[in-house]
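User: Okay, second chain of the day. Same drill as before: sequence in, structure tokens out.
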Amino acid sequence: MSKFCFLTIFVILPIFMYSQVGIGTTNPTKELDVNGDVRIRGLSNTSGTTTTVSVLPDGTLVTGFNNATAPGVKFVGFLSSDIALNTDYNFKEIILSNELIDVANEYNTTTGRYSPIIDGYYKVSMDFDIGDYSDSNKDLDILIGLWDFTTNNWVLRRTFKHRDNNNQGLSSGRNESYGIANYLQLQHGHSYGFRIFTDYDNSVTRDAKLKFRNSGSTGSSLSTNFSIEKVL
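Assistant: Same drill. Structure tokens below.
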């Protein structure tokens, strides 16, 4: 090989090795520099909505619609009618039959069971209203959370005390709002459900309700809702 050929290869090869590609620009500043919009057909989905894009460890771009491992909101559901908390020391199943989001069809609106299709770390959030409790002197003890029906135990639980009319000047029967948010590991093959447990004093009327709607003279809105979001 002549010295001229060797010199040419020596000069040109680094250009190919470290070249930057520009699309819509003649002065790229990165290995790939696009001056314009980008469409990646592999990230499209049939939901009719936009969604966030995540990066797998190997650099692959995915969304929750085309890859179950991708983070993002998996389920949001609302209570569609009141649940009467009229028994003492008793579980009530919370069935969120009014779905807003269920990306992978993991929630059964008939049974109230959530069955994740993949192991992962999830954020579980619960925002709920208690109302119609008519006793202004006795507390209502509430235990609420997420139950694992596969292992028969709580995986997320909180306790609250509720009393109607514990602030002067507020009308009877009003709703009190509560909230829970926590991170936990959910497992594929397990079945989860939301439950509420009540403990009354013997002398009070058992008339409290888990409310689906918060209503008043200025308007109304759906209130009790739970959500599940995959974070890792």
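Residues 1 and 203 are 103 Å apart (CA to CA).

User: Thanks, on to the next one.
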